[in-house]
């Protein structure tokens, strides 16, 4: 499944309105740990039916900060979040974001 990059509040709000479930990765374009996590996220996106999205922290800082504030999830980078019914039901960051952790997080949807 292709990972679409979102960059602004309008795109994010559209996701909240149109998708019951989706993943979002806050990805740093300059961090080696973020590069590792993105590879894990890419692999996971190929295995799941849940839509996967990403924002580049350096290019979408206002959106990244807004998400942290609105959903009361302290900003980290890299950071993966699972949204369900317009709420964050799972999130993790740095090396804890693995294919296995992402797969296990889908159990929160049942």
TrEMBL record:
Protein name: Bacillithiol system protein YtxJ
Pfam families for the chain: BrxC (PF11009)
């Amino acid at each position: 499944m292709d990972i679409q990059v979102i960059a602004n509040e309008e795109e994010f709000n559209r996701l909240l309105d149109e998708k019951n479930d989706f993943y979002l990765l806050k990805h740093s374009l300059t961090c080696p740990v973020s590069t590792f996590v993105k590879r894990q996220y890419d692999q996971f996106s190929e295995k799941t039916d849940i839509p996967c999205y990403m924002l580049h922290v350096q290019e979408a800082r206002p959106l990244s900060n807004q998400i942290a504030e609105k959903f009361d999830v302290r900003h980290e980078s890299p950071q993966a979040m699972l949204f369900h019914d317009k709420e964050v039901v799972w999130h993790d960051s740095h090396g804890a974001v693995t294919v296995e952790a992402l797969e296990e997080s889908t159990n929160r949807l049942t």
